[in-house]
């Protein structure tokens, strides 16, 4: 019985060179090509871990990356993929799962104008504060799924001042490094994972499910797994370490 492994990508299996400044070109393996030139790389240890997952489990990426951004990853996943923070589930053939697509689209289409309002509000606040940012709606086909803000010249520490507070109930405001995402409640790694695990366990209900992620937001789906883990240097590990010290 092959285990299911749900694995986040960025900062779990690979990272940009900026986050591994002590490593040389010989220490790194290209993991993803970026349109802006900020490519991502795996350490030799991450390569070994990824190869083990791909060889021994049904490895399924669970990522904030869009379908297009996933296509630029060098790792050869052969099963499903959960992308755009759960907005889309890709089948083994690389095409969106129709059943999940219908569920999500019905809830997202009424939010298209609101996404534009959020981006405009963030841009106006950045201009007021004199901070250079870039922001966009993450698209899947012609469907906007959530919005992202990044600083152009900073480390992301001022994004909390810039990105608007969403007053609608259930929205997630996820900030990790130079990335702040505003995500509507219908978009969730957890919801997509629940849907997919139910399908994969339909015939083999006792298949073990493992999960790996680096961000506090990843716990939404990691808590569905039978076992989960995080990189030693990650937002998740920092949180767990701080909580353990308090006890």
Keywords summarizing the entry:
4-stranded parallel sheet; 247 residues; 23% strand; Rossmann fold; 2 domains; globular; alpha/beta
CATH homologous superfamily placement of the largest domain:
HAD superfamily/HAD-like
Largest sheet: 4 strands, parallel
Strand order of the largest sheet: 5-1-12-13
Structural class: alpha/beta
The portion of residues forming beta strands comes to: 15-25%
Radius of gyration: 18 Å
Q: Averaged pLDDT, please? A: 91
Distance between the termini: 38 Å
Describe this structure in words.
- A four-stranded parallel β-sheet has the order 5-1-12-13, with helices on one face. Strands 8-9-11-10 form a four-stranded antiparallel β-sheet, covered by helices on one side. The protein has a three-stranded antiparallel β-sheet with strand order 2-4-3.
- Strand 10 and strand 11 form a beta hairpin.
- It has helices spanning 44-56, 67-70, 98-108, 112-129, 159-162, 189-200, 219-222, 235-246; strands at residues 4-7, 15-16, 28-32, 40-43, 58-61, 81-83, 88-90, 133-140, 143-151, 172-175, 180-183, 209-212, 227-229.
- It has eight helices and 13 strands.
- The protein starts with a strand and ends with a helix.
